[in-house]
Amino acid sequence: MKTYCFALDLHDDPALIEEYKRYHTQEGIWPEVLKRVRANGVISEEIYLTGNRLFMILKTTDDFSLEAKAAADSESPEMRKWEELMWRFQKPLPHARPGEKWIRMEKIFEAG
Q: Domains in the chain, please, with CATH?
């Protein structure tokens, strides 16, 4: 199993943050998004929030490919609509390259 961690910011607006959180409840998330989360080798996805910073943890199969998942998601009209909607709430990290959303984090420590 592989683990990937990503970071992204939300606009620092409490009302927008609450709306973003509602979209990520079991009642608020679109069925196609859940289907895509569970496809292409993703075992689980978790998103955590502190202030306006998001952290996403993906656990995947050993043969998982970020590139293949991105390509499959980009072919889905529903995922494109979802990403466009989510961009209303999200903003790139200060060090993001143009057009970059979720930034993969570097693992620097592990105990155990």
A: 2-104 (3.30.70.1090)
